[in-house]
Design brief:
about 300 residues, alpha+beta, 8-stranded mixed sheet, 3-stranded antiparallel sheet
């Protein structure tokens, strides 16, 4: 499909003075922040705004920030994004073995050498846990399934930029069904892109995109994703119009998750899936970057939408 949705972009908005200090407190690790009340209030209002867009019949699920390591391996994440993965590790063994490892720290040793992987990983995307749940329910009924999911997520890409966190929040609407049902779902959301950005008073583009697949093989996968128009991003110019920030994505996975999890549609064929993802932290930063730190002076229309 061809999509060309755009609002005029004259220049990126100026970064408000003191934005980092007003919204965050550093924790000593790049891309991981304590968040202020001012910031969290806007996150909560964005959450309610996104909920108001929920289609009838959507099932709501909220996931913890960790998920099954075996499930993520089955998803193929290690093939596509091994450099972004965060694995939960723990001290295993007898009481004396664990005590010895802990005591090594007191004597200047490296206690982390005694760690081994637990059966959990940090969730890299909010939608991943929903597919095995859908698979456990049997064939997808006519009309498909739609889920509203959210999770704290992690991707190992340290950065000092306020629009690239390692620990971030993701909200998604996920559709599972036939190819026709799923592409219609994604197209409905793509058609809303202009109104979504307009309600928030954000200048934007929607353009074809690819995921940051790993290595040389990943470059081929990225080209294929672009050629098939499987992914589009809502891009908001924060740092510059040349390097805008992706704040939403509209993704069609074809049969990938259906085949991976043996999810079948009403015809007995592997189900297709699609998702619309809201980068909660990026959207919040974009609002402050665009409209300033004084929410009382934000445009009246934006304040009304967010119910200030």
């Amino acid at each position: 499909m061809t999509v060309a949705i755009r609002t005029p972009v004259a220049e990126a908005p100026s970064k408000p003075d003191g934005i980092a200090d007003a919204l965050f407190h550093p924790t000593g690790v790049d891309g991981v922040y304590a968040r202020t009340h001012l910031y969290e209030d806007v996150i909560e209002r964005l959450t309610s705004w996104i909920s108001s867009k929920r289609e009838p019949g959507t099932e709501v699920l909220r996931f913890p920030p960790v998920m099954s390591r075996k499930d993520l391996e089955r998803h193929g994440y290690l093939k596509s994004f091994p450099n972004l993965l965060g694995c939960v590790c723990a001290l295993h063994g007898t009481e004396s073995e664990i005590r010895s490892a802990a005591d090594s720290h007191e004597s200047g040793g490296d206690w982390t050498a005694s760690l081994s992987a637990a059966d959990l990983v940090l969730s890299p995307a909010a939608c991943y846990p929903v597919y095995p749940i859908a698979a456990s329910r049997g064939p997808v009924a006519p009309g498909g399934l739609v889920f509203d999911v959210a999770s704290d997520c992690f991707r190992h890409e340290p950065s000092k930029d306020l629009d690239r966190f390692q620990s971030f929040r993701m909200r998604e609407y996920v559709c599972i069904g036939t190819g026709e049902e799923v592409t219609a779902f994604r197209d409905r959301w793509l058609d809303q892109a202009a109104s979504l950005a307009g309600e928030l008073g954000l200048t934007f583009d929607v353009k074809p995109a690819s995921d940051p697949f790993f290595g040389r093989t990943g470059q081929v996968m990225a080209v294929s994703q672009l050629q098939q128009a499987l992914k589009f991003e809502m891009l908001i110019p924060l740092h510059s119009t040349e390097k805008p920030t992706a704040c939403m994505s509209f993704n069609y996975h074809r049969e990938h998750f259906g085949e991976t999890w043996d999810i079948i549609d009403q015809t007995g064929a592997p189900a297709h899936t699609a998702c619309v993802a809201f980068g909660m932290d990026r959207l919040a930063v974009a609002l402050f970057w665009t409209h300033g730190l004084d929410v009382d002076r934000w445009p009246a229309a934006v304040r009304d939408v967010l119910k200030f």
